[in-house]
Write the structure tokens for this entry.
Amino acid sequence: MTITATNGNDVVALRLQQENLEPKRSIGNGTGIEDLDDDGKPRRTGSTISASAHIITAVIGAGVLSLPWCIAQLGWVAGPIALVIFAYITFYTASLLADCYRYPDPRSGKRNYNYSEAVGTFLGPRMQMTCGIIQYVNLFGYSVGYTVTAVVSMVAVYKASCFHKRGLGDTSCRISNFPFMVGFGICEVILSQIPNISELTVLSTIATLMSFTYSSIGVLLSVNKIAKGNTGKTSLTGVEIGPGFSVADKVWSTFSAIGDVQVAFSFSLILIEIQDTMKGPGENKKMKMANLISIMTTTVFYALCGCLGYAAYGNDAPGNMLSGIYDPMWLVVLANVCIVVHLVGAYQVYNQPLYAAVESWSSKKWENSKFVNHKYSVSIPGFKNKKCHINMFRIVWRSCYVIVATLLAMALPFFNDILSFLGATGYWPLTIYFPIAMYISRKEIKKYSSKWIALQSLNAFCLICSIVAACGAVRGISKSLAHNPFKAKN
């Protein structure tokens, strides 16, 4: 017996009408009813564990290696406190955001498939457009920044191998970043054809393991340095003002450090998209648990890398705790390889919301276009009854996107400073403002009530921190521009 339906509402109705009939029914193209969710889309199978893997892949970036420098600027008191405060704030607002996936009931209401759609549902179309612009500009910025960061590690692997053969410091081991950027771009072009974030679980799991590995290596190198007693000078307030380091330098470096800590917890812009992969019902509760697991895990690693790194290197802690280290060489090479593999996965996790937004808009704009909407089924060699679905628009659009991001990374190899700026300016609206505003709207919290004042105070505090961090990032950009940034660093 075949049942034909054309949309999600029909599917729900058919489920109710056929509740006690045979379980196998088909809809349209033969997809079983039991394989569809309440909105008529393929059943989501994500779990708390898979969501945690996606989040950790996005959260623990190579930026964790800069945390010893951050602690050095803030000191033993303010540094760890800043990590704990921003970890808690991010968890709190991420929990508010988890309840905005469905509307009006967070457990059984209509789904919001992405962040900007959730903002539009609760705050209106103008805020939705504003959120979309901020979100997608940041996602593109991460694409360029991840390319630059991955290439730095690729070059480090090459130089370690070269030094091993020719001796440490051999000038013939210098090489341009560009070939590595091209290689990284080609890899991302291929992986960008993974259709959606639900299909990235394996890649995210591998990337998560890689992030734990290189973070652990950083910790081990710090412990080894501490054990040998060859440590740098530390203090309660961090780098001290003195010859070669003025009051202004201290202020600017503190601002930059706050920005780096914020960037370390800037992952809310993809949380709704990750939640949309989870099996229902009760996605909000599962997502809150995934947030808790992820943030607790990452905060422990952040604290270990930051504090042990600072204890080892002191006030002279480098911007990357692995930079310039080649002993033991095999361990440093392994760490840099893990960074590259992790960033390959993180690149895809961050870009899937942007890919989906463009493809959804294009599908509606040119709904009769075969180029945009038709999918070709191709058998996978060696896998019986397994097929992949190829869409020509997806191939062209995603490939062009990666190429543009790679070319920009080649032109601006100092893009990490711009990434810090984007992270600082994106942290407040995406991680703080929109979740709080949606929560106030959903709960209908009265203006000037005690809860409203508390939420707006948190809002204002994070806004000030973001402005301060953005100022520090602007100074970093200006300093980079003063040193011929268009020449790739070796």
About this structure: The chain is about 65% helix and 5% strand. The first helix runs from residue 8 to 17.
